[in-house]
Amino acid sequence: MVPDLGGHPCPNGADNVGAVRSLRPFRRESRRQVVGDLLLWVALCVMIGAMGPDPFVDPVAFCLVTVSRWVLAAAAVLVGRRRPLVALVLLLPLGPWRFTEGFATVDLSWLLPRRNVKILPLLPTSPFIAWYAYLTGRRLTKVWPPAAAYCLISLVGVGVVLYMGGDLALWVSMVTALIGTYLVPYLFGVLRRRLLQQRRQTRLAAEAQARLRERARIARDMHDSLGHDLALIAVRAAGLELAPGLAPEQVRAAGELRTAAADATERLRQIIGLLREDSDAPPLSPVDEEVSELVRRAADSGMSISLDVAPGPVSGLARAVVQEGLTNAAKHAPGAAVEVAVSPRRIRVRNGPPRSRPTARSGGMGLAGLRERVRLAGGTLDAGPVGDGFELAVSLPEPTP
User: Where are the transmembrane segments (predicted)?
Assistant: First the structure.
């Protein structure tokens, strides 16, 4: 049970919600906004007072005209922060309907009977009206409410011109007043809003790209580390299958373990396919681990590997190439002998025929990502069957001094 604004209980909070919504245009989010709007109203009252009758000469007219305009200005400032179009309509009586002073004076005697024609008439309240016109374009996304208000303002301007005699010079002043005081600030507000929207869209696009790059990095890390470890588990299971002296139940369990590791590798490949962003270029710097340490871990898992490292600086791609070659050999050629040769300009991983039936499916993205790394480094990658086995070879350009 929620009490209403009068302190009486009501069965639901509908009355409270309606009251809060009705007060929303008048709410201020901070004391700074309250002070700013109060100063705006004071400045507007000063300008209105300068436009009105002298209170010492004609106090009755001052009370009827100036004080009523102050109240109107207070209402406009009160709703103008959240409803600038309403404030713009409320300030219609304070619009640029006096054509005695203007931004410029032109001589149109060649066209009109009058020589001094005011272009863009200005009043002390004109900057405030232009400000609310700007806020309307800045905050209001719909087009028809400003268009309807502009038609209303135009009708007021037409009525003023007709009341003053309908001189062609008055029409020129009125049209320029509508354009300069209302239309141009509104268009500036629309332009500002669209620029901010474009900036926000650009920022969101950059954040989306950052998320995609992070997903691609996670996919690469999963492929390079977890995929390789699963392949080594499958190799150990394949070694147990071929080990002599095991009972049939143990051989069957080892085969089930090898199949489970292969299935987990396939599911990992599918997850990587969801995380990976093809347009994102893989990094050229792999994780820190020496090729010899990588080969040692693979050999400890049961793979038969021979390593030949030529003297000289080894490319940072060597570990990625060797890891991809060992992972593919473990998945697609279980129990095969593997030869690894690493030199400054060439990296080669070659495996013989499998000793047991492979359980992994082809079609992963490891070679595709590695090919892109090699391409970005200026090298070439060749992968395919060689004799009764498979070979992965990468040739790199001469390092620049």
Answer: 34-53, 59-79, 84-99, 119-135, 147-164, 170-191
* Domain assignment of residue 60, given as a range: 1-82
Pairing assessment for the beta strands 116-121 and 102-107 based on DSSP bridges: antiparallel
Q: How far is CA 342 from the centre of its chain?
A: 44
Question: How far apart are the C-alpha atoms of 392 and 241, rounded to whole Å?
Answer: 27
Domain membership flag for residue 346: yes
- The phi, psi pair for 23, rounded to 5°, reads -90, -5
**Please, what's the largest Cα pairwise distance for the chain?**
122
Cα 260 from chain centroid?
41
Q: Total structural domains in the chain? A: 2
- Residue 277 and residue 215 in contact, taking contact as beta carbons nearer than 8 Å: yes
- Tell me the mean pLDDT in the region 247-271: 72
Domain CATH code at residue 385: 3.30.565
Q: Which of 59-68, 202-211, 243-252 has the lowest mean pLDDT?
A: 243-252
Tokens of 207: 């954040």
